[in-house]
Write a structure and sequence with these properties.
mainly alpha
């Protein structure tokens, strides 16, 4: 069937023309669709694509536009473009969504224990609060020594005390902090 045969049949009976066109080019269109979608689509998707291709072809020929060229070329071009669109849509769906009803669904684990992380942050917040309650210069000494890892000599320069005084105050502050934390229910 060529363009003139199809145009003639179309003026007589649209249904007959569509059926003849479908019967003539169905295998050709299905081959194009199959070759493009076989790696990502189910048979139902391929069938749907073929139907959409013929709908586009029928709509294109249903208009009053004059067609110059081979009918098979036009159908092949429509089929290739529509199959490419289906391929993009199917691949993007497969990459974006996972059904939680799927038997193979397993939750994605981050490797992070959220409960533990939250508990550690809460303990850290309470610890910082209790260190602040020690008052100056003890809170500064504890923070500088255990958080920033500074030596007694470096801390002595910051709080204007001798390194020996820093060591004594640090030991007393740690003991006092331990007592405060135990009263709060936190053991170290």
């Amino acid at each position: 069937m060529d363009h003139e045969d199809y145009r003639k049949n179309l003026t007589e009976s649209k249904d007959t023309a569509f059926r003849m066109l479908f019967d003539e080019y169905c295998n050709y269109v299905y081959t194009i669709v199959f070759n493009r979608l076989r790696s990502c689509a189910e048979k139902e998707d391929m069938d749907e694509c073929v139907v959409d291709i013929f709908a586009d072809v029928f709509a294109g020929y249903n208009s009053e536009k004059q067609f110059s060229g081979e009918l098979k070329g036009f159908i092949g071009t429509v089929a290739k473009r529509k199959a490419a669109d289906y391929y993009k849509r199917i691949v993007s769906k497969k990459n974006k969504s996972i059904s939680i009803d799927d038997e193979n669904f397993s939750p994605i684990e981050s490797g992070e224990n959220i409960e533990s992380t939250v508990a550690e942050k809460e303990v850290g917040r309470i610890l910082l609060e209790k260190i602040t309650e020690l008052g100056e210069p003890d809170s500064t000494i504890i923070m500088q020594k255990y958080y920033y890892g500074r030596s007694s000599k470096e801390i002595a320069d910051i709080v204007v005390l001798t390194p020996n005084a820093i060591n004594v105050r640090c030991a007393r502050a740690v003991k006092k902090l331990r007592d405060i934390l135990e009263k709060s229910g936190i053991t170290i």
